[in-house]
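Recall that a protein's primary structure is simply its ordered list of amino acids. Everything else, from secondary elements to tertiary packing, is in principle encoded there. The following example makes that idea concrete.
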Amino acid sequence: MSEGMEQSVPAQRRGLWDSFKPYLEKESLAAFFLGVSSGFPFALLAATLTTRLAQDGIEKSTITAFTLAFFVYNLKPLWAWIIDSARLPLLGRLGQRVSWMIVAGLLVMAATVNLALADPKADIIWTATSAVLLGLAGATFDIVIDAYRIETLKPYQLGTGSGMSQYGWRIGAAAAGALALVVAGRMGWDWAYAVCAIFALPAMLTALILGEPARHAVTHAKRGFAEVWASIAGPFVEFFQRSGAWLVLLFILVHKIGDTLANLTFRLLFDDLGFSNDEIALYDVGVGFWALIVGVFVGGIIYAKLGLKRSVLIALILMAISNVSFAALAAAGHSNWGMAGAIGFENFASGYGGVVVVAYFSALCDLRFTAAQYALISAGASIVGRLLTGTTAGSLIEAVGYVNFYLLTTILALPGIVLFWWMMRAGLVDAAMGTAGKEQP
């Protein structure tokens, strides 16, 4: 890509309106609705489940261990190749991506209702199992959603499309999180989770309305062992044959360790500081939502003006600094202004970073293996942070306190910043690009 993407994109957007207009294109609007459905399972497994378990009196070490349910998302590459190559019976007539979108959406709805019926106080093991099942269904849904989004967007739309996807993701996560808190306070957690199953519908309806993505490369079903093995290995072989691919993978693995470690513990901090559900809904969901809206829009503009590489470097720096704001909140104690400031800055940085980093990761894909390669990339982006959160975060917080914990997460973000800067200087960011970031002849 990257010369084409790095140079032609800024040239197409010179004024403010030119920067805004691509957000209204049908491909970008589709990315928004896909994002809504992608965000809600994550919200139910992260902040919402953390709050539910904390209010039920479950120990911190057990609560943070529940984040291992997210580890299922990191196993996506193991079955993503099936979604690229296997044609579903009957529904397959709707198209490869559309049929899988419908099936994966139904699985997420069923898993959400199943988790609604689990009672942590009565059976913590079954609750954990139900969380893993939702993670498995949500990961499969994400595989299809990511492939559909990348193949629907044209190369010049990857920035704005990623921005709209982030808008949708955060709206879906925020709406599901806020709705769950409100319903839980009035009707209980079982109803709260069951109602949130409706958030799977936007992606399913988008796929039915738009049909198969324009850039989907059709692959035929594989029958023999050699052909099946080629379907499994092909996406990985192609990726690692690129110049600098191993360093790109290293960056993917380390760039988000600090951010993931911090994000999955925010609700524990809020609970220990004595914030009520209504305060959490107002500041974490409300203020955070609007800060993210601004961050995503700014990210789209900066991406258009500065290009991919400089935009990503700025994002990495902002996301690292955002963790310091939570160290400050932990030191200040129960402060509504402190919570608003910390949440606001974190969501602005996350919104901005979501646009440019997701655009970069999307551009790394080969269109013949979109689902499998993006599953590998997105899984690698959070696997280390999630493992550390699930195995050590609760114990670390109890040992060193919240202030030192969040300062540690800031330090853990530095290797990713340094590595990406070096990759820019060495030309490896451009050298490892895939066909998704290139205009097709």
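The chain is about 75% helix and 0% strand. The chain has one domain: 2-437.
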